[in-house]
């Protein structure tokens, strides 16, 4: 048994290049950057306008959804092009429950998350039978189906125009109407989700996901139930999109089907890739590139998507590991690290 | 019953266009393992190139189409293979999937930037008239589309099955290593499939854009329909993709009329999901060893 576990571990170490083989210097730099970013984010409301805070909140919410996709795709290796639709399901479910049925915000958020988790597990079933591009197309089709329902069932979803005037909630009797307050709410949620993700990746579950990605046959023969973990990866990944959706609706204050379309799912996928799939920092970086960077560079969205897609293509050609993989890549390049060469 | 046959003919006509696009998609997959997520944009863009040439060079539809074939053969055939597929294909299909997704977004947003977000009207090859015979009302545009698409398909089949180059391409698709041993220039054959795909998407654009209008976002729907046709029919067979195209076209038209027109695209998607879950090799495909 111990031998088996160590074998799995060995296998995983070889694959998770970014986390397990970084030098102490790189790790220290990583920690310094992390502390710097957290302090900046905590102090941001002091110097930023409402719009700046809105963007940072949007970054936080999107990062939660992309962390979910990173779990499904980056760690468990199951490609999904339906993440935006799960965000949509979360946003519509919570909004309908809270605005329509007068439910408490937290209850709405929890139910939305559970709904997404359940549907996510269902979407995991095809993943038991097919892999790779087939799975990509099933999930793509699912995303399109969700959009069709959102667009056509006017009586429930408001049709193509969506739902307007979504109120910001009060939590524990504390109104989140102010941008700065909603911003801190988003940051707390992001921190909680990230901690949970960090914990899970280090838990046996996390190892199981990675084993599933790197060598499913071997994982199965070592006694892992690939069925359970495939469904779990989809369920948790989609659940996170549900949380993000339930937060997105009050943040943007309106929702429409278009925001959760195919293009959005494709961009989520690119975010995971650009940040570095299967790394904890990946989603933060990937979402930063799409949501925050264009604002700083003063690009309009149309121009930026063009530049971003060219960037993605070049990145894929030169660094198949993503941005977070550049550090270890350079290190490997210049120090001739034997361990990396071997794996 | 007359309505049913009218819908059937219209469905077969649109299905023929989907079949063209799906066959190109399947050919790329078979010879080079490329899953082209930009296939829909490859159909959207030539529509705009044709319109642009007609407007700036003041030429007719057919000359503009011929020039466009040359342009797409160079960009979507040659350059696509050399710059994107060749460097990435050795890393498996995943990086290439990401790269073609990026390429699709690039083409889509680029078109929006250059040509704007409005739908532009597109000339028909044959002016649309309604023919009546035996109680049926059939559009001449549908018949023309069907005739052109079927001719292209027959020509392609003859080329693949009868000509030396075509058979070499099939050999490459079946087993590149053996083909190489037999002295076939595999790289050249792969390039041929990319060129054929470029021609097919351009013909597809010529035939489908009058109905869809030239719009930057057409690629999303068209790409999805082509994927569905290829997978439903069977990825690894040209005739699978052909059959899938017709099936999707007919299903879409019948479903839209008899069940719900707002759920038009839902029927093929449901069929797609059923096929993938229960018969992943496609209705007409041969089963393949599972790849992970």
General description of the model:
The complex is a heterodimer of chains A (343) and B (292). In chain A, 49% of the residues are buried. Chain A is globular, with a radius of gyration of 20 Å. Chain A has helices at residues 2-15, 17-20, 24-47, 50-75, 83-100, 105-129, 132-152, 154-157, 179-202, 204-214, 216-221, 226-252, 262-275, 282-296, 301-318, 326-335, 338-342, and strands spanning 170-171, 174-175. Chain A contains 17 helices and two strands. The longest helix of chain A is centred in the last third of the chain and has 27 residues, at 226-252. Chain A has one domain. Chain A is mainly α and 343 residues long. Chain B has 292 residues and is mainly α. Chain B has one domain (2-220). Chain B contains eleven helices and two strands; from the N terminus they run ααααββααααααα. Chain B has a two-stranded antiparallel ribbon with strand order 1-2. Chain B is globular. Chain B starts with a helix and ends in a 14-residue tail after the last helix. The chains are: A mainly alpha (343), B mainly alpha (292). Chain A binds chain B through residues 79, 125-126, 129-134, 136-138, 140-142, 144-145, 148, 151-152, 216-217, 261-263, 266-267, 269-270, 273, 302-303, 305-306, 308-310, 312-313, 316-317, 320, and chain B through 35, 37, 84, 87-88, 91, 93-95, 97-99, 101-106, 108-110, 112-113, 220, 224, 227-228, 231, 260, 262-263, 265-266, 269-270, 272-273, 276-277, 280, 290-292.
| Total of helices of chain B | 11
Radius of gyration of chain A: 20 Å
Helix content of chain B: over 70%
Structural class of chain A: mainly alpha
The first-to-last residue Cα distance of chain B is: 47 Å
Radius of gyration of chain B: 19 Å
Low-confidence stretches of chain A: 1-20, 336-343
Low-confidence stretches of chain B: none
Which whole number gives the mean pLDDT of chain A? 85
Give the spatial strand order of the biggest sheet of chain B.
Answer: 1-2
Oligomer: heterodimer
| Main pleated-sheet profile of chain A | 2 strands, antiparallel
SSE class of chain B: mainly alpha
* Helix content estimate of chain A: over 70%
Could you report the average pLDDT of chain B, rounded to the nearest whole number?
A: 89
Sum up the overall morphology of chain B in one term. Answer: globular
The helix-strand sequence of chain A is HHHHHHHHEEHHHHHHHHH
Instruction: Give the total of domains of chain A.
Output: 1
Give the spatial strand order of the biggest sheet of chain A. Answer: 1-2
Count of beta strands of chain B: 2
């Amino acid at each position: 048994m111990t031998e088996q576990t160590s074998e799995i571990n060995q296998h995983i170490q070889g694959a998770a290049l970014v986390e397990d083989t970084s030098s102490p210097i790189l790790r220290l730099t990583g920690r310094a950057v992390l502390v710097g970013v957290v302090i900046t984010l905590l102090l941001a409301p002091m110097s930023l306008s409402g719009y700046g805070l809105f963007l940072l909140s949007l970054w936080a919410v999107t990062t939660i959804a992309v962390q979910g996709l990173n779990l499904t795709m980056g760690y468990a290796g199951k490609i999904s092009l339906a993440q935006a639709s799960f965000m949509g399901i979360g946003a519509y479910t919570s909004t309908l429950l809270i605005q329509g049925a007068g439910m408490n915000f937290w209850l709405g958020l929890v139910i939305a998350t559970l709904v997404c988790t359940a549907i996510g597990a269902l979407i995991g079933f095809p993943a038991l039978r097919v892999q790779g591009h087939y799975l990509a197309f099933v999930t793509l089709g699912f995303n399109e189906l969700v959009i069709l329902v959102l667009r056509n069932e006017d009586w429930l979803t408001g049709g193509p125009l969506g739902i307007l005037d979504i109120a910001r909630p009060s939590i524990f009797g504390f109104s989140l109407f102010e941008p700065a307050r909603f911003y801190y709410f988003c940051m707390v949620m992001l921190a909680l989700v990230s901690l949970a993700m960090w914990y899970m990746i280090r838990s046996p579950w996390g190892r199981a996901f990675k084993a599933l990605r790197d060598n499913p046959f071997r994982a199965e023969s070592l006694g892992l139930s690939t069925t359970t973990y495939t469904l779990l990866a989809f369920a948790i990944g989609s659940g996170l999109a549900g949380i993000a959706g339930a937060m997105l609706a009050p943040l943007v204050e309106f929702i429409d089907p278009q925001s959760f379309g195919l293009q959005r799912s494709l961009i989520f996928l690119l975010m995971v890739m650009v940040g570095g799939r299967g790394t904890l920092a990946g989603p933060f970086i990937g979402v930063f590139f799409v949501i925050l960077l264009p604002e700083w560079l003063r690009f309009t969205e149309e121009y930026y998507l063009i530049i971003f897609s060219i960037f993605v293509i070049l990145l894929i050609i030169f660094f198949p590991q993503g941005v977070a993989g550049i550090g270890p890549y350079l290190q490997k390049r210049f120090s001739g690290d034997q361990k990396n060469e071997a794996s | 019953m007359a309505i049913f046959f009218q819908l059937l003919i219209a469905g077969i006509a649109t299905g023929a266009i989907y079949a063209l696009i799906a066959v190109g998609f399947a050919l790329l997959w078979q010879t080079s393992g490329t899953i082209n997520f930009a296939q829909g944009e490859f159909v959207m863009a030539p529509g705009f190139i044709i319109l642009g040439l007609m407007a700036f060079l003041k030429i007719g539809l057919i000359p503009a189409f011929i020039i466009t074939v040359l342009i797409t053969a160079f960009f979507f055939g040659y350059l696509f293979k050399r710059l994107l597929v060749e460097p990435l294909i050795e890393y498996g299909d995943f990086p290439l999937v990401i790269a073609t997704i990026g390429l699709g977004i690039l083409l889509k947003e680029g078109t929006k930037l250059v040509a704007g977000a409005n739908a532009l009207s597109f000339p028909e090859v044959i002016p649309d008239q309604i023919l009546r015979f035996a109680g049926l009302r059939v559009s001449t545009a549908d018949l023309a589309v069907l005739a052109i698409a079927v001719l292209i398909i027959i020509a392609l089949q003859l080329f693949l099955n009868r000509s030396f180059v075509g058979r070499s391409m099939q050999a490459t698709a079946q087993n590149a290593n053996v083909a190489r041993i037999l002295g076939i220039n595999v790289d050249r054959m792969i390039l041929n499939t990319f060129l054929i795909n470029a021609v097919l998407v351009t013909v597809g654009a010529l035939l489908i854009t009058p109905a869809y209008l030239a719009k930057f976002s057409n690629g999303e729907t068209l790409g999805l329909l082509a994927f569905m046709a290829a997978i439903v029919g069977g990825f690894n067979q040209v005739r699978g993709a052909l059959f899938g195209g017709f099936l999707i076209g007919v299903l879409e038209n019948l479903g839209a009329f008899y069940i719900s027109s707002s759920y038009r695209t839902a029927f093929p998607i449901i069929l797609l999901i059923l096929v993938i879950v229960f018969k992943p090799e496609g209705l007409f495909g041969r089963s393949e060893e599972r790849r992970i």
